[in-house]
Design a protein that fits this description.
It contains 22 helices and 12 strands. The chain is mainly α.
């Protein structure tokens, strides 16, 4: 946990206790009396019928919600003690619900190609073969939601979307928002343009129907989103297809999603007498996360009653960030999940993403000859750059930092997200590039064998040391590569080589791709957090494809690197030995 002055911690605790009254009556994560709130979910999750709480809330109903609730209530009326035994509860679940996954089916993308062009540009034969294997994985991860979800949505937690999709993998049987950005980039490299467009259309459908893209494709995610990458997905698609008709038909939905973030996730920061509008992750919903109900509920029991509702809100906001969970959100004396204060943080990466969104939307509206809208987003982009610089830039460290609004404090700890404004080009003075490169070198984060750690703080949480995550590697690499600095570009390549190496080594060892990797390990998947490391894995595949496409003529596989290094040492020795033997054989 970061070291803070005692008075700052005391101030924050007092402020938060006073603030809790404002959060006392938050709504549940969704309206469902089965999947989000009520006696059924509480009883099933707290009796821990399944190892993973997500298992239960992914189960489909055999009957209507009303009949299922009445059936559950009857269990109480038959028991004068008003309690339900584990055996009775198991029987109820088995007779009332389908197993998870029955509402979706495997889908073989018809636009899949055996040999996309990017593969032929990879020089290393081992990496080229691996790229073909990764291309094959799109078929393994393809899913289609059955029509029964559209016809009887009340019987499912799965949210219907009109087009098939690529899921991340493992326990993740639905779409996930920010994962899909790197998946779509990988699909475009694989020349699967119809599949990529279909996924974008699914997200546009979400915005049109709900006004928000949820964290994932489940009703229990509807109270929270994830990092807003929809406009960047459209940017990737337009760079590949330049379909102005498709853009014109949907530009209003891109703007609508942006407005959601500005209307529901903005925060005002006053510094030196000037007000700046920036954004935060913020989820005004009470109760435990349905997919992690028992863990959240048990954590909350360690808190005073007035602290529970803000805790539930902050935990969901951390999930909205995609970083669930990390010391990045910990502010307080305990240094663990109970100190999660996400709602009070202005994140460097979220504001960098929105900075890039504003620039893209300004460009899109210019292409569509809509000058009034283009001017609006151009002005928003200019204001964002100014706010990011004045609130988040730390000139002493030479990098952008998260800012805690309540403490009026920049978090000095290392996170790859500190470099997100570089990736978004959310700055005007090119002198920051050298400062950011110097910061990165001094941070110690470049010293790890397998890529950038998510933090330098080992808390046991999955978005902390020693885990490395594909999207963070890519954002830092892309940010460094797009600069004019030779040193930045060289660091970018070295990071790419490290990340390709650990993914490739793990693939050779386990014949699988994973959601995260250990930056200290030897081709080992990452760990920690609330569930076992998942394989599949959508964004890991997409990022590797992008790196192979970018550096395909320079990257090498471990087998090649090792053999060359070995021969470099061994060859002179062999020549010497042969020479001595030959001389001894002369008459």
């Amino acid at each position: 946990m970061m070291k803070q002055k005692g008075w700052l911690v005391t101030f924050f605790v007092i402020f938060y206790v006073l603030k809790t009254g404002l959060l006392a009556d938050l709504p549940p994560p969704c309206d469902s009396q089965i999947y989000c709130t009520g006696d059924i979910i509480h009883e099933v999750q707290m009796q821990k019928l399944f190892e993973d709480d997500k298992h239960f809330v992914d189960m489909g109903l055999r009957d209507t919600p009303e009949n299922t609730i009445n059936k559950f209530k009857s269990l109480y009326t038959r028991n004068p003690m008003r309690s339900i035994s584990r055996e009775t509860l198991i029987e109820f679940v088995n007779t009332s619900f389908h197993e998870p996954g029955t509402e979706i089916q495997q889908w073989d993308p018809p636009d899949w190609k055996e040999s996309p062009k990017f593969v032929s540009n990879i020089s290393d034969s081992n990496l080229q073969k691996w790229a073909k294997d990764l291309n094959d994985l799109w078929k393994f991860l393809g899913r289609k939601i059955k029509d029964e979800v559209k016809v009887e949505p009340e019987k499912h937690s799965q949210i219907y979307v009109p087009n098939p999709l690529i899921v991340p993998g493992g326990r993740f049987r639905e779409f996930y928002y920010w994962d899909s950005y790197w998946v779509i980039n990988g699909l475009l490299l694989s020349e699967m343009r119809d599949t990529a467009r279909g996924m974008i259309e699914n997200f546009l459908y979400m915005v049109d129907k709900y006004g928000i893209i949820p964290n994932g494709g489940r009703v229990y995610y509807l109270c929270r989103s994830q990092p807003p990458f929809l406009t960047l997905m459209m940017e990737s698609y337009m760079a590949n297809q330049n379909n102005l008709t498709f853009l014109r038909q949907n530009i209003h939905l891109l703007a609508k999603e942006y407005d959601f973030w500005m209307n529901n996730r903005s925060v005002s920061v006053t510094l030196n007498g000037t007000d700046y509008t920036l954004n935060r992750y913020y989820v005004p919903a009470g109760g435990p996360r349905p997919e992690a109900y028992s863990a959240d509920y048990e954590q909350a029991q360690k808190l005073a009653e007035e602290e529970k509702t803000p805790f539930y809100s902050d935990i969901k906001a951390a999930a909205e960030s995609g970083w669930d969970f990390s010391s990045r959100w910990f502010y307080g004396p305990r240094g663990n999940l109970l100190d999660t204060k996400t709602n009070s943080v202005v994140p460097a990466d979220l504001n960098a993403i929105l900075c890039r969104v504003e620039r893209i939307l300004a460009n899109f509206y210019t292409q569509l000859d809509m000058p009034q809208e283009a001017s609006r987003f151009s002005a928003a982009h200019t204001q964002r750059i100014d706010a990011v610089h004045n609130v988040l830039w730390d000139d002493k460290l030479g990098v952008w930092l998260d800012y805690n609004v309540e403490l009026q404090y920049r978090n000095p700890n290392f996170y790859p997200s500190n470099l997100a404004p570089l990736w978004a080009s959310c700055y005007t003075n090119s002198a920051v590039v050298d400062k950011v490169v110097s910061y990165l070198e001094k941070s110690g984060a470049l010293s790890y064998k397998n890529g950038l750690p998510t933090s330098l703080n080992n808390t046991g949480q999955q978005w902390d040391f020693p885990n490395g995550w594909a999207p963070l590697q890519h954002m830092v690499i892309e940010g460094l590569e797009k600069t004019q600095s030779a040193k930045a570009k060289e660091i970018a390549f070295k990071l790419a080589q490290k990340w390709v190496q650990v993914n490739y080594d793990a693939y050779k060892k386990y014949n699988a791709m994973y959601e995260k990797y250990d930056v200290e390990g030897d081709g080992k998947p990452g760990g920690g957090g609330e569930y076992e490391v998942q394989l599949g894995f959508g964004w890991s595949n997409g990022v590797i494809m992008q790196l192979l496409d970018l550096y395909g003529t320079r990257l090498t596989s471990s087998a090649i690197t090792t053999s060359l290094s070995f021969l470099t040492v061994l060859f002179p020795v062999l020549i010497t030995a042969v020479g001595i033997h030959f001389m001894q054989c002369l008459p």
